[in-house]
Design a protein that fits this description.
five-stranded antiparallel β-sheet, 23% strand, 23 strands, 6 domains
Length: 693
């Protein structure tokens, strides 16, 4: 039993020794590791201290109250301060007064929340009095209990960056000011097409306001729908890097109106990605009109040159570059393949007898900047001599002549005629004496003819006066019994009880009235040419007279269900006898009503030009056949003789024309044909309008 206990004790002792040995080894290892960690920590601290001491940034520690307890020597020395002047000072002593309140608020917030301060920007005073911008990151320092006891931070000098930002901001502000001043639309859009910026001119040009832009306006709202696909394609090409240059298209305003626009788009790139587009829009409506006018002028010039067989040329004096059109080649009998684009080539085609004179005249034209008008001989490749008329002008760049341009045309036939005329002149010179005698005889005959013309003119005037007196007398002689008939026949009709006889009397009454009207029109026509000037003078308001005429035709207007529109200004006064105005519009409006279709429209309006003003009476009725238009103003002419219209005498338009010409005017009838309506235009001198303002 004792042996067993001794054996167990021995085993326990061995176990204790083994456990102690293992524990001792672990302690030694941990001590070694601890010593190594301490050495590494000392080494890291040494590196950190070297890093801090040599850093150009300001590394600092401040307590809760903002007192500087540590600052890296090299970093703060960049501001010109020795360490002894900084440690123990409040950090706000070095911060710009305008930044102090914001800096203190950031510190207070960090004390409350315990959060780090990242990117705090403020200005630190340099020892020379200037201010340097710094950006600072600060972390909180805590004691064993976790209480914040201060801050450790790193401040980086960002003065150059801030100056760059300020310069960029100033440049942006200047750009924005410039953009607002430019007389064209500048804009920016996002990748979704929504406008993010548009200058004041753009708002005015397109009829939008700032609220519209704030609520979202798509760039395609500024484009006419028929050009949307075109703009989409151009934007896609621009995004793909294809330079499609300037765009021309119909732009559209908010109210739907359109104008020709020229634009340019450039991508807005951020971090190598396109985030939108920037561009400008310029109204080129006037330019388009000018281009169209130039195109028409060039077209007409081409046609004129082709018809007149003019050759057009242009010589670049600076680069000695010569251009000929096709007619120049024809005039010189040269193909396009043989043509050389220089002045020397032209000189070789000029006749040797004229070359020196032509070069001298060219030089004088260039030096004196005057036009050139001369003639020359040229040689065709086959040796034939042709005569050419040359006209040219020199063009300058405000200082020196830079080009000449002009025309050539063939005058060979004219030269031949001149030679023949010279020959004839020599022959005629031999007969000069005979011609002089004939001239004297012709002069005497002319004098006799003048006397006879004067006598005939006086005779015609006398006969016209007799005719007028005769017509007037006959008219009065006819009107006197007609007046009695017109007055008595209705009374007789009332006394007649037989229907057939009463109907016959009614026909007689109507015929008497028609004859009376014809006589009145004939008398008016016969006397209107001899009206005295003082009878033409008037001061008449036109619109009310037209309204009276329309009212007088009320029955027919209602019967045909017509719409008669008087668009003549109520304030229009003209120098014309009121009765003449009434006659003009009574006849013209009556004709329009008579030949209108059911539910038709008649419009009366005016148009004022530089030297004349015009009355328009326009209907959409039966129209006039083209072959009848030249005769509508003839006396007793009826376009449709098959109608047997007894109420139409064929004198109305003749009377209208006489009155219009009496006032130095003109009247024109326009119609595109049967059932195409008719427009009557009366032109008068603009001086007849009376200013009532």
């Amino acid at each position: 039993m004792v042996d067993i206990l001794q054996y167990i004790g021995f085993i326990l002792l061995a176990l204790v020794i083994i456990i102690f040995s293992i524990f001792f080894q672990r302690i030694c290892k941990e001590k070694r590791l601890l010593n190594e960690s301490i050495d590494e920590l000392k080494q890291s601290e040494k590196k950190y201290r070297l890093l801090v001491e040599n850093s150009h940034n300001i590394i600092y520690i401040i307590n809760r109250e903002g007192i500087i307890t540590f600052i890296s020597p090299r970093g703060f020395s960049n501001l010109g301060y020795p360490i002894l002047q900084v440690n123990g000072k409040h950090i706000l002593e070095f911060i710009n007064p305008d930044d102090q309140e914001r800096f203190q608020e950031d510190l207070n917030m960090a004390l409350r929340t315990g959060e780090w301060l990242i990117g705090v920007e403020y200005r630190i005073r340099h020892v020379n009095g200037s201010w340097r911008w710094h950006a600072s990151d600060m972390v909180t320092l805590r004691d064993e209990t976790g209480t914040i006891i201060g801050f450790e931070g790193c401040a980086i000098d960002i003065t150059d960056k801030k100056n760059t930002e300020f310069a960029l901001q100033e440049s942006k502000e200047q750009f924005m000011e410039l953009a607002e001043m430019l007389p064209e639309t500048l804009y920016e859009v996002g990748i979704d097409g929504i406008i993010t910026y548009i200058n004041e001119h753009g708002l005015i040009q397109f009829g939008y306001n700032a609220d519209d832009i704030a609520n979202g306006v798509n760039i395609f709202n500024l484009v006419s729908p028929d050009y949307s696909d075109y703009i989409i394609k151009q934007i896609q090409e621009k995004i793909q890097g294809i330079d499609n240059g300037y765009l021309e298209y119909w732009a559209m305003r908010k109210d739907g109106s359109r104008f020709w626009a020229m634009g340019l788009l450039v991508p807005i790139v951020r971090n190598d990605s396109i985030v939108g587009l920037r561009g400008f829009i310029l109204d080129i409506t006037e330019q388009k009109k000018t281009e169209e006018q130039i195109r028409l002028i060039n077209q007409r010039m081409t046609v004129a040159a082709e018809a007149a067989k003019f050759g057009v040329w242009d010589l670049d004096l600076v680069n000695n570059h010569l251009e000929w059109d096709d007619w120049m080649l024809k005039l010189y009998n040269i193909t396009r393949e043989d043509f050389e684009e220089n002045f020397r080539f032209w000189q070789k085609r000029i006749h040797p007898g004229d070359i020196d004179r032509i070069i001298d005249e060219f030089e004088k034209t260039v030096c004196k900047e005057k036009s050139l008008d001369t003639e020359l001989r040229i040689l065709w490749p086959n040796g034939e001599t042709r005569y050419i008329k040359l006209n040219a002008v020199a063009l300058t760049d405000k200082m020196h002549p830079v080009r000449m341009t002009g025309i050539n045309y063939d005058i060979t036939d004219r030269k031949q005629y001149e030679w023949e005329i010279t020959q004839y002149a020599e022959e005629l010179g031999m007969k000069n004496l005979s011609l002089q005698e004939l001239s004297d005889e012709l002069m005497q005959l002319n004098q006799d003819l003048d006397v006879k013309v004067k006598e005939r003119t006086e005779e015609i005037s006398r006969l016209l006066a007799i005719k007028t007196d005769l017509i007037t007398q006959i008219g009065h002689d006819l009107k006197t019994p007609l007046t009695s008939l017109i007055a008595l026949l209705p009374y007789i009709k009332k006394r007649v009880s037989e229907p057939d006889l009463s109907e016959m009397i009614e026909v007689v009454i109507q015929d008497a009235k028609r004859i009376n009207q014809i006589i009145s029109n004939v008398l008016t026509l016969s006397t209107i040419d001899i009206k005295k000037q003082d009878e033409l003078l008037g001061d008449s308001k036109v619109s009310p007279i037209i309204n009276r005429v329309i009212s007088a035709e009320h029955y027919l207007i209602k019967q045909y269900n017509l719409q008669v529109i008087n668009l003549v200004s109520p304030s229009l006064f003209i120098k014309m006898n009121e009765s003449h105005i009434d006659l003009l519009f009574s006849n013209l409006i009556s004709n329009s009503i008579k030949y209108s279709r059911l539910n038709g429209t008649i419009r009366i309006f005016t148009e004022i030009n530089d030297d004349t003003f015009c009355f328009f009476i326009q209907d959409d009725g039966q129209g006039i056949a083209p072959d009848h238009l030249p005769r509508v103003f003839e006396e007793f002419f009826k376009a449709d003789t098959s109608r047997h219209d007894r109420d139409s005498y064929g004198l109305g338009l003749a009377l209208v024309q006489r009155i219009v010409k009496l006032y130095d005017g003109n009247i024109i009838a326009d119609s595109e044909g049967i059932n195409m309506g008719t427009t009557m235009r009366m032109f008068f001198p603009k001086k007849m309008i009376i200013d009532r303002i």
